[in-house]
Specification:
With about 675 residues, the protein is mainly alpha-helical. It is built from 25 helices and 5 strands.
């Protein structure tokens, strides 16, 4: 008797979605549109593959993010659905690498789900189970409820196929809880339908009908639900046949066949139901249309290359012709069914076919029975080993997850320890660096103090030299005024009282010489007064040093300068530290002008503003962006110097507009 897993295989792999024909357009969602178009049977296969290639190439040209890797997973799956298994494996493998790199849990789970679908297609169910298990682990970890439930159902389906009924039930009920939570009615129908099939397998027919009835409760909540009704009616009828309630079974088959468009809409379903219905009539001894319906079902299944369906049709025809006592035809049909069941590795149908063959072929009955027993034992061993592999897969997957968890924890500890060591080493380096900087600053401070002392000593030395020069000038002035000038005056007076005898011309020359001597006396007196003037030696010394500095720099920098000193500044009363720092700031500024500004003209002004001494340094150089370059060492040093003197430092500059430095220091 046929047990129809209606929708079960499609439910444990990824569902095929029906879409309308969408015109191809290039837009932001072009990738999604191309993937949807690849699902559309209205396009030829070549075009659908082209859609996938377009979407893949577009993703490759963009930055790979979460959305991109999930679309890559869809593209890999669609390649599988379109029959290109080599391309599927290549793209699915590449997608897994990217998904792991991005740590996208959903995408990783989706890739393993793709692999599970592939292994179901090639009937490697242990590999399919392993990948379902991995996919479920990733989906469940991040609470992707729908995907977690679907992969659980996938495992349940495989376990049911290998007669692990308890394990299959447990997984199905776990999936049902999740589907109820998200109100996914179609999946709930699928789960209850599967439970009904499991109960039928273990001959718990009433329980099977109960679960089919539960499945039917959800059909009304699903759109386009006619195929689901047909599946339940067909599956319920199979149980009624097993219970020998043929009238109820035929009633359910007729509920399906009442759809006159079934043959044109779903030819596979139509072939299945007319075959089952005809066989039910055969069991009721109503053989009126049985041969016709069975042969029509076989013809339709053969045209679709539905090999499992062909096996069932030929098995039913063999039983029909055996009943009609046409043994040779019956044997031919059952031999063909046996051979095809073996070819497609359908163990259950192969066993049934061998058993029927042993009944029909009396000459070789014993040999077929022996084969039946051997294969049954072998099949049981295979199923037992497969169930054991499932148990190992669950254990190994859990172990793998636990190992990953431990490795993750170890990585975290290693990372934390490494960070701790890096922080400690960094702290030690920072402290050492700070110590070096502190020592350097102390040395620089000592050097600066020493430089200031040297400069102050230089100023004092120059002041002493200047004082000596002033004394010498005063002495010379006194000598000129009191000595030479007195003698000249006496000589001139004496000559004036002489009674010169001679011609008028001689007397006139005598008078001219007296006047010339008087002029010389006047000039000597003026020189004496200038030499003895009261000079401010300190003022002369500082301004001289500043002028000397500027002249030495302008020769190097090839610029003209203008220097102005406010006459109201009493440099003698200005603190030596202020003068030292002003000198250093001016020195640094001139150095920067030479190195960076390339100025042709520089103007330096010292003025007195109330109780503040103001220094202005202005150039017509190339200027600079203050926001980018205000943290230079030279400027920092200037600011630090002025800050020590409680002064104010300002700098103004723009590209191609020169630079102005203005310093204001309180001196009283």
């Amino acid at each position: 008797m046929l047990l129809v897993f209606s929708g079960s295989l499609q439910s444990c792999i990824k569902n095929k979605e029906e879409v309308e024909i969408t015109p191809l357009k290039v837009a932001k969602d072009s990738v999604a549109i191309w993937i949807e178009n690849s699902k559309n049977n209205a396009y030829p296969l070549r075009k659908r593959k082209q859609f996938l290639l377009q979407s893949y190439q577009t993703i490759q040209s963009l930055e790979i993010d979460t959305l991109a890797v999930r679309n890559l997973s869809k593209i890999a799956y669609r390649s599988l659905k379109l029959g290109d298994t080599l391309l599927f494996k290549k793209r699915n493998k590449a997608t897994l690498t990217i998904a792991k790199k991005l740590k996208d849990t959903f995408a990783i789970g989706n890739v393993y789900w793709n692999y599970a679908s592939y292994y179901i297609k090639i009937q490697e169910y242990d590999s399919a189970f392993y990948n379902f298990r991995l996919a479920h682990t990733y989906f469940d970890k991040k609470n992707y409820i729908f995907e977690s439930a679907k992969t659980q159902y996938g495992m349940a389906f495989i376990k049911g196929r290998f007669k692990d009924y308890t394990g299959s039930e447990v997984l199905t009920f776990e999936a049902i809880k999740k589907f109820k939570k998200i109100k996914n009615y179609k999946s709930l129908f699928t789960c209850y339908n599967h439970l009904g099939q499991l109960q039928r397998d273990i001959k718990e027919y009433d329980s099977g009908l109960f679960y089919y009835a539960k499945a039917m409760e959800y059909i009304e909540k699903v759109k386009n639900n006619q195929p689901l009704y047909e599946a339940i009616y067909n599956n319920s009828a199979i149980i009624y046949v097993a219970q020998k309630e043929y009238a109820k079974a035929l009633e359910n088959y007729n509920k399906v066949l009442v759809n006159k468009r079934l043959k044109s809409q779903r030819v596979g379903s139509y072939a299945r139901v007319i075959d089952n219905s005809a066989f039910c009539k055969f069991l009721m001894k109503d053989t009126t249309t049985v041969a016709k319906d069975l042969k029509e079902a076989l013809y339709l299944r053969d045209s679709m290359n539905n090999k499992e369906g062909i096996v069932i049709s030929k098995k039913h025809l063999a039983q029909y012709y055996a009943y009609k006592q046409d043994t040779s035809i019956a044997i031919n049909y059952i031999k063909e069914a046996t051979s095809l069941a073996k070819e497609i590795k359908n163990g259950g149908e192969y066993l049934e076919s061998l058993f029927l063959l042993s009944k029909l072929d009396s000459k070789h009955s014993l040999a077929y029975l022996k084969k039946h027993i051997q294969f049954s034992d072998s099949l049981q061993n295979i199923e037992r080993k497969t169930r054991n592999r499932f148990a190992r897969i669950v254990y190994e997957t859990d172990e793998y997850i636990e190992e990953n968890k431990l490795l993750t924890e170890q990585k975290i500890w290693i990372l934390v320890t490494s960070l701790g060591l890096i922080l400690i080493l960094g702290l030690l380096y920072f402290l050492k660096n700070q110590q070096s900087k502190t020592e350097k600053l102390l040395l620089e401070n000592k050097q600066q103090i020493a430089d200031e002392q040297v400069y102050l000593i230089t100023l004092k030395q120059q002041e002493k030299l200047e004082n000596e020069r002033v004394k010498e000038r005063n002495r010379i002035a006194e000598e000129l005024h009191d000595g030479i000038l007195g003698k000249l005056f006496g000589t001139r007076v004496g000559l004036g009282f002489l009674d010169i005898k001679g011609s008028k011309d001689i007397k006139e020359k005598h008078q001219v010489f007296l006047e010339e001597l008087q002029t010389i006396e006047k000039e000597i007196r003026e020189v004496s007064h200038k030499l003895s003037a009261n000079f401010d030696s300190t003022q002369v010394n500082f301004t001289a040093i500043i002028r000397q500095l500027i002249e030495s720099k302008c020769g190097i920098g090839n610029f003209r300068y203008e220097l102005d000193f406010d006459e109201h500044i009493n440099w003698q009363n200005v603190d030596g530290k202020i003068k030292v720092n002003l000198y250093r700031i001016l020195q640094e500024s001139l150095q920067n002008i030479i190195k960076y500004a390339f100025a042709k003209e520089v103007r330096i002004i010292f003025i007195l503003n109330n109780k503040d001494l103001v220094l202005s340094i202005k150039d017509n150089g190339i200027g600079f962006d203050i926001n980018k370059n205000k943290n230079g060492i030279g400027i920092k040093n200037m600011i630090a110097r002025i800050k020590k003197l409680n002064g104010v430092f300002n700098i103004y500059s723009k590209r191609n507009e020169g630079t102005t430095i203005k310093i204001q220091i309180p001196i009283k």
